[in-house]
């Protein structure tokens, strides 16, 4: 059989790619260009608000380069998880950018749009029928959780991307997909080894992160009927058996198994062999089909509102006694909030994190030094409304500015780096689903639209 | 006592989705791997995180000279009490574990 080559420009659109490496990749005649547009890794607010993490300008510049490459080589271009979170709003955002570029380049294009956003009422019905089940360490949910989410997406797999490619589209803009599905789809369509298709996709999903010089971005994954080859495209980048096998561990809670819609990848018996100085061949990966067909759900809901302040302590005695100082403020300000705002303990929280001392690990920090020059104190007020969070922030303000270690000393004044000292963060979000949804048909939870533009 | 970071090539921690954290210890050589497999206990990792040992999944991977630990994220990613959105700084806490070195 002929091999199928998938060119991956970078780990995510917006992270940039090496243009010379991309050109080299194109000269090697790929069958498709596949780039990821996001993940949950930047936190729940992007999904909660349905917005992109990356700059629109960066996204547009990088996407334009890929649209030009696609047209010149007459191959399809696919983006998965468009706009960081893959909601309908970010798919629309990506579509708008695509149309602008098509106008600028004078391109006539066929666009397939795969939407992954979920209807909360349909999910509540599926939950009632027992078709939504928890994964390990999932939060407890009831049927009401779906209506409380501001956005819910399902992660599409290879079946849905295949359906999009089969429309004959030049460009595929997909909502939330697994990172791997956009890479695995085409080799699977052409009958390449199933285990290799998924394993190669996992290795390539972060671009050249599976090689040295990862910032170059561009990697080619070449699939055939027994395995796959990993070839980084930047001149100085090298893929070696250790760099490739190490990537299977990346962001994966089980180093041997990767769950995907419709089955799982098992790499326990994979064999990594250097082809030459810079590329690696992998064989022995296994794909195991599972029944029923399931897709993972992601949902985010509003978890409160915040006002935050940052103050700097430089006075030696305060730096040395910062924890005691912070504890005292926490206690006194909490009492004031309850007294003056009538808040109950459960309706607000005040956190003071000592940056330079224990902000990363809190009570789990094991290193303690007397040599600290200064400390930042990050004060976080969380409440049920923004008005309340701001009120608490304003009650914290005078403590953070002037609170003394004891009542007898002269009133100290600490450093606020800006005014107003309170930054109102608006709504904050939390992930509230780690569940899978059973489907009778892979397209049941997704929709596909074809648009001819220009 | 030797600091763990001095016994390995690299320690990496990262989110494995919003609900799990995974820590990879790249030992670099077979001998460093063998030493660590014998001397680093899952209990020490549990102690560093202040969690039950049983909540930690351990994978000793001799073909890669890697030891991987996965555990429920100490705080769900992005929750009000979470301190590190990407989960990468936890590697520092593990790097500084003191290992009893036996000749």
Descriptive overview:
- The complex is a heterodimer of chains A (454) and B (103).
- Chain A has helices at residues 19-27, 44-49, 56-73, 88-105, 120-128, 145-148, 158-165, 181-189, 194-204, 241-247, 316-320, 322-341, 386-402, and strands spanning 4-8, 32-38, 77-84, 109-115, 132-134, 149-154, 171-174, 219-223, 227-232, 257-260, 263-266, 271-274, 280-283, 286-289, 293-313, 348-355, 375-383, 423-431, 435-439, 447-453.
- Chain A has 454 residues and is α+β, with helices and mostly antiparallel strands.
- Chain A folds into two domains: 4-299 and 433-453, no CATH class; 315-414, no CATH class.
- In chain A, the strands form three sheets. In chain A, strands 12-13-9-8-1-2-3-7-4-20 form a ten-stranded mixed β-sheet, sandwiched between helices. In chain A, strands 5, 6, 15, 16, 17, 18 and 19 form a seven-stranded antiparallel β-sheet that branches.
- In chain A, strand 8 (219-223) and strand 9 form a beta hairpin.
- Chain B has 103 residues and is an alpha+beta fold.
- In chain B, the strands form two sheets. Chain B has a four-stranded antiparallel β-sheet. In chain B, strands 1-6 form a two-stranded antiparallel ribbon.
- Chain B has helices spanning 30-39, 42-49, 90-95, and strands at residues 2-3, 10-15, 20-26, 57-61, 66-72, 98-99.
- The mean pLDDT of chain B is 95.
- Chain B has three helices and six strands; from the N terminus they run E-E-E-H-H-E-E-H-E.
- Chain B is globular and about 40 Å long.
- Classes of the chains: A alpha+beta (454), B alpha+beta (103).
- Chains A and B meet through helix 10, strand 16 and strand 18 of A and strand 3, strand 4, strand 5 and helix 3 of B.
């Amino acid at each position: 059989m002929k091999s199928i080559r998938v060119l991956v420009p970078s780990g995510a659109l917006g992270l940039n790619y090496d243009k010379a490496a991309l050109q080299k990749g194109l000269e090697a005649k790929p069958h498709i260009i596949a780039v990821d547009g996001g993940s949950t890794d930047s936190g729940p607010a992007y999904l909660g608000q349905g917005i992109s993490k990356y700059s629109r300008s960066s996204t547009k510049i990088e996407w334009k380069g890929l649209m030009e490459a696609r047209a010149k080589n007459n191959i399809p271009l696919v983006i998965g998880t468009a706009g960081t979170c893959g909601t309908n709003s970010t798919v629309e955002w990506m579509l708008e950018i695509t149309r602008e570029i098509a106008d600028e380049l004078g391109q006539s294009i066929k666009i397939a749009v795969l939407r992954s956003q979920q209807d909360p009422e349909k999910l509540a019905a599926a939950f009632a029928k027992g078709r939504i089940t928890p994964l390990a360490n999932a939060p407890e949910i009831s049927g009401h959780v779906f209506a409380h989410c501001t956005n819910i997406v399902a992660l599409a797999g290879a079946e849905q991307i295949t359906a999009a490619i089969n429309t004959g589209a030049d460009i595929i803009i997909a909502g939330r997909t697994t990172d791997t599905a956009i890479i695995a789809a085409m080799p699977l369509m052409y009958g390449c080894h199933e285990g290799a298709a998924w394993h190669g996709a996992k290795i390539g999903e972060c671009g050249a992160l599976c090689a040295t010089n990862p910032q170059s971005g561009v990697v080619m994954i070449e699939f055939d009927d027994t395995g796959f080859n990993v070839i980084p495209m930047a001149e100085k980048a090298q893929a070696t058996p250790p760099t490739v096998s190490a990537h299977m561990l990346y962001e994966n809670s089980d180093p041997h198994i990767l769950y995907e819609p419709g089955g799982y990848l098992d790499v326990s018996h994979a064999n990594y062999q250097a082809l030459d100085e810079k590329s690696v061949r992998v064989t022995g990966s296994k794909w195991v089909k599972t029944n029923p067909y399931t897709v993972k759900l992601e949902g985010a809901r509003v978890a409160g509102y915040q006002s935050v302040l940052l103050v700097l302590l430089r006075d030696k005695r305060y730096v040395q006694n910062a924890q005691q100082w912070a504890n005292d403020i926490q206690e006194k300000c909490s009492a004031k909030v309850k007294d003056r705002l009538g808040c109950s303990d459960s309706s607000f929280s005040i956190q003071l994190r000592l940056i330079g001392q224990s902000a990363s690990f809190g009570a789990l920090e094991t290193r303690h030094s007397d040599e600290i020059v200064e400390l930042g104190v990050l004060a976080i007020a969380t409440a049920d409304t923004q008005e309340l969070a701001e009120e608490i922030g304003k009650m914290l303000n005078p403590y953070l500015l002037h609170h003394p270690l004891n009542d007898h000393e002269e009133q100290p004044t600490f450093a606020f780096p800006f005014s107003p000292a309170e930054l109102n963060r608006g709504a904050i979000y939390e992930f509230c689903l780690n569940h899978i949804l059973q489907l009778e048909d892979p397209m049941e939870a997704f929709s596909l639209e074809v648009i001819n533009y220009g | 006592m030797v600091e763990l970071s001095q016994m390995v090539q690299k320690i990496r921690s990262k989110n494995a989705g919003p609900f799990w954290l995974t820590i990879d210890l790249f030992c670099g050589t077979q001998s460093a791997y063998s030493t660590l497999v014998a001397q680093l206990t899952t209990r020490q990792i549990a102690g560093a995180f202040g969690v039950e040992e049983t909540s930690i999944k351990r994978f000793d991977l001799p073909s890669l000279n890697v030891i991987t630990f996965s555990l429920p994220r100490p705080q769900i990613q992005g929750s009000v009490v979470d301190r590190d959105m990407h989960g990468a700084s936890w590697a520092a806490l593990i790097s500084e574990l003191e290992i009893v070195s036996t000749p």
